[in-house]
Structures are given as C-alpha cells and as structure tokens.
Amino acid sequence: MVATLLISISAIVSAVLVGFVARRVLGTAVGWPRSIAVGLLVFFLGVPFTQWTLRQTGLPDATTPIPADDVWLWVGLIALSLAWVFALGVAALVASEAIFPTRALPNPVDLVRAALRQRKRTRRYLEILAIASRHGVGWLFHGGRSRVEEQLSTSEERANAIVATINDAGVSFVKLGQVLSTRRDLIPEPYLSALASLQTKATTLPWDTVRAVIETDLGRPLDQVYADVDPSPLAAASVAQVHRAHLLDGTAVVVKVQRPAARAQVEADADIIGRLAHRAEMRTRVGRDLRIESVARGFTATLLEELDYRIEARNTMMVASTVDLIDRAQPDRRSMVTVPRIHAAASHQRVLTMELVDGTALSDSAERLAAMTADDRERLARVLMSTVIEQILVYGVFHADLHPGNVLLRENGSLGLIDFGAVGVIERSRRQHMTAFLLAALSENDVAATDALLLIVDPPDDLDVEAFRHDVGIVLTTEHLRTTGQGSIFTRMVDVIRQHHIALPGELASAFRSFATLEGCLRVIVDDFDMVGEALPLMPSLLRRTVSAKKMLTDLQAQSVISLARLQRIPRRLENLLAGAEKGSIGITLRGESGDDVGGILGRTTAEIASTLVSIAAVVLAVVLVVAGGGPVLGGSITLFGVLGAVIGLFGFLGLLRIVRRTFTRKG
C-alpha cells in the first residue's frame, strides 16, 4: 500500500515537473493534459532506461551491492539518464505543440451551440449546392462539368442559370446579385444585365408581428409613439416592410420595420456566401476574373450594416445636409430636390420613422412627366443633375443607389430622394482628382483625363498606359458625338477600367455608378437629355469650389502650423543630439514599414543565431566526446569525456528544442 502511494506521488510529481520545466525551457504555455501524459510516460520509462544505461557501462544495478567508491558515480549516472529521458519527454511535447498547438478548452455549452449552428449551416450549404446543381451552375463551385452544364453553351444561358439559382437561394443571395449588378467594373455582360433583373419576392407580415417588432425595438407601447399606424403595408420587401402612420402631433410619416428573422437569415448566409465565393475563386476562372471572394466579403459586411437602421438614419441626415447647403447657395432652386426628415425619437435599430414623401417613382411617372411642359422637365433634370454632381464632387456624400425607383416625382412637381441604406463617402483629395478627371473628360482631353484617372484608381504595375490612354480617348470621342441611345460615358469608362484589370476602389465605383444611374434618371425626365453638354458648364464653378482660394488659404495655414510645430522641435532635438555626442551615447533607431524597431529585430535575430550556433556546437562537441571517449576512467567503462559529452549534449539538445519551438510559434 505504501509502495503504491509512493509510486503514485512520484508519478504526479514527474508529470507536474515535466510541464513546469517545458514551460520554462520553451518560453511558452503548454497544455497540462499533454504535459501530464508525457510526464507519466517519462516516469514509467525512466527506470528501465536507467537500468539499461547501468548495464551498458558495467556498473551494478540496484539489486547488486555498490562499492563505496562508486556510489557518487552511480548516483550521477542515474541522474544523467533520467535527465535524458526528461529531455526526450520535452522533445515529445515540442513535437506535439508544433503539430497541434495548445488551445483553450471550449465551454461545453458553447460546444453544443456551435455543433447545432454547424449542423444548420451544413444543411443550408448543401441546400445551396443542390439548387446550383439543379440549375446547372455547379461548375461555379467545383469547377467540373455535368450533362446539364454542357447544355449551357452560351454566356447568356449561363447568366440566366445563375440568376435562377440566386432567385431560389433566398434573400441574402438575391441582394448579393443586386449588388453585383451595379459593379460594372467587375461584372461583364451578359451577366450584368441578367443580374439586374433580380427581384426580391416577399410576403407581408401579419400586423401583430410588425407591432411586436416596433414596440420591442422602441421600448414603448405603440400608442405612446404614434397616433395611428396603417396595419396594411404600403410596400413589402425581403428585409423590411413599410407602413403609413401619424405621429402624436399629426405629422404624416412612414415606418420601415425590419422582419424579425432578417438578421438571423443574413448572418447564417454570410458565412456560406464567403465559403462559396472562396471555392468559386479558387477553382474557376470566372470566379478569379470577378474577384468574387473580395466582393462577397465586402457585400456581407455592408449588408449587415444595412440591417442597422440607425446607420440609414445617419446617412439620410448627411445627404439632407448636403441638399440644404446647395439650396442655401442657390435659393432659386430651393425644395426642388428634397430628402425626407428622420424622426429619431421614433427610430432605432430595426425601426425607421421618416417623413412621408408623397409621389410616385420616376419609373412609374411617364404620364405625369408627359403632362409637364418641356421647360419644366428640362429645369427639373438640370436641378437633379447639378444636385447629385455637387454632392459627389463638392461635399463627398451622395446616394449610392440612385435609380428611377428611388427618385419620386412629388405632387407639387419637385423630386424626392428616398432609401438611403447605401450612401457613398469620398475624401476631399480624391474628390479633387475626380473633378479634374470629369473636367478633362467633358472637354475631350484624353491625356489629362487619363492622368487624372490614374490618380483615382489603383493601376497594376504592368499597365500599358498608352493603350489605356487610347481606349479612354476612344470613349471620350464617341460619347461626345452620340446624342441618343442607351448607355453612358461613365459605364463605358468603367468597362475600359475593367478591361485593363485596374482595381477601382469601392467608393469610387459607387460614384461612377451614381453618375451612370443619374444619367438614366435624367433621360426618364427628358428622353434626349445631354448630360455631357449640360454638365460641362458646371465643372469650372465646381472646380473653383473644390479648390477655392479660401480652402487653399486654410490648407496653407494648416500646413504652416504643422511646419512651425516641427521647426520648434528642432532646437531641442539638436540639443539632445549634441549632448549625446558629448557623452558618446548617440543611438539610431531604425523602423520598418510596420513600425517595428529594426534595431531591436536585428538584435533579437543576432541573439537567436548565436544561440542556435552554440546549441549546434554543443551537440556536435557532445557527439565527438562520446564517440572518441578518452580521458580518465571514472568506473566501469565510463570515461570523463563520455560523461562531459552526455552533459553538454543534454544542454545543447534543450537549446535546439527551444529554437524549434520559437520557429513554429512565429509561423503560427
């Protein structure tokens, strides 16, 4: 009983000791379960290995009386043998850590929840793949071809099959397709036109469900916020539906209410969309050409943001402030373009209450437009054009989803902009470059337009600038002579950018898209509206406003203050430098692109190289001493050089283990 207890205690001590020493030697945390397992293995292998070592050296084992002169040698040899077993145990820990690094044990509850989510995600993933295969577009994800896919012999057939797949896959995929349909810089025809036909189909929610969402999100009973709400929705979409209502003070409003399951559905599909996009980009040329993984990642992030109506409220107020600034500068056009007012007290994450905009979408206003005089329609188109161009180039905040469905022709003949889920923001420096590009493009200066465009986009290193300039010039020349027909100078310019494999930043792609959709809106109002001719007279004044003398003076003042602050620091720095020179303690710190201290990195690298060389030298020296033998005989067949070799080799071996572990840690 006592022997068993002593053995158990020794085994536990050995296990703990292995874990403790491994942490000290490796300089990193090691999982206790594997430390205990290796420690027990060291304990049970230690005795057999020690006995084998004693037999090999000719010394008696524990069953034979030990001469008094050999006691210390015998004890030392046992300790050295156990140390080597211990070192081999640490090596086993290093190997296990390198292959399977220690991770925190998950919470059992979290583990079960993750398994349930994984099961649900897998079922949804397989459902999407089945839908894709049914429509013959499985090649998008696995790169192979089937009998059905072979029937899709033309680009038009493949595009229609992709649209059918997206329609069946649900709201998140439909919205992804709608976003892709606006990225002319990424998507070629006929896929672009096919994706533009996507429409979300949604059933209306029962009023009790809508009421519960409103009261939960606002944290108050309905009658404390609204005088009345029409239970019948004004419109219903896949993510939200809209109801007419009146506030307590009688103000007519519309209430946009998010569907309860919308966020859960989008979050569940976001991971699947990312995985499918990754497979499509890795395995198919179409996916690589479209850079679909990057687009999908940006889309899912944007879509999740759009589910927070507080962001849409902020977007709406920003665009409203730009319209107000434009109206102040041009009082004669005040209220011709309006943005609905947000009622913040009746809005939150899933509920958005805004001013009711009476009227019909431009796309449904053909009869009303036809009843207007030509002069009124011309003025309306010019005001809308100047508003959007000024928002983009002067203020840098604009409606990023401007199409005839989001522009309403109001009862009083003015225009109302709605739906600000997507708003573009462009910083001032890029707005100046874009203004210069548009000025050059509208005046058909292909050289200046190309130079300005190269300041806006991210050109590849191997770009053929002359060929790019030639294609830009062709677009400018032909567009200046074309007065009728479909298309836009901006869409053709984006086609040129895509054909030359130039990356167009997302916010600039939104701006170009807004210019193109603006032209579409203008031609709904006036079917032969010449946006190029009408915009050209505006550009000099807009350029003066973006690069005005006042702004230049302000910039100069800001730069002067910064330069003065830097100059004021020079005397103190010179004084510190001279003081250091007198003391002989001048130091230079080099920093890399990431901001890390290059000197410190070099110092650590030099120390690691020296440590590696010392460890290797120790191991080599140990091998030489053990193999060569020699030196005084200590007992049995043990020589002094052999013992020294075993000791030196042990420390060299542990040093190499530490280096190996650090190497794997950096790679991880």
UniProtKB/TrEMBL annotation:
Tagged with keyword Flavoprotein: no
Keywords: Membrane, Transmembrane, Transmembrane helix
Domain ABC1 atypical kinase-like: 198-446
Database matches in SUPFAM superfamilies: Protein kinase-like (PK-like)
CDD domains linked: ABC1_ADCK3-like
Transmembrane intervals: 6-23, 35-52, 72-95, 609-628, 634-657
Keyword Transmembrane carried by entry: yes
Gene3D superfamilies the record matches: Transferase(Phosphotransferase) domain 1
Annotated InterPro entries: ABC1_dom, Kinase-like_dom_sf, UbiB_kinase
PANTHER family the UniProt entry points to: CHAPERONE-ACTIVITY OF BC1 COMPLEX CABC1 -RELATED, PROTEIN ACTIVITY OF BC1 COMPLEX KINASE 7, CHLOROPLASTIC
Annotated family: Belongs to the protein kinase superfamily. ADCK protein kinase family.
Name the UniProt record assigns to this protein: AarF/UbiB family protein
Protein's organism: Microbacterium algihabitans
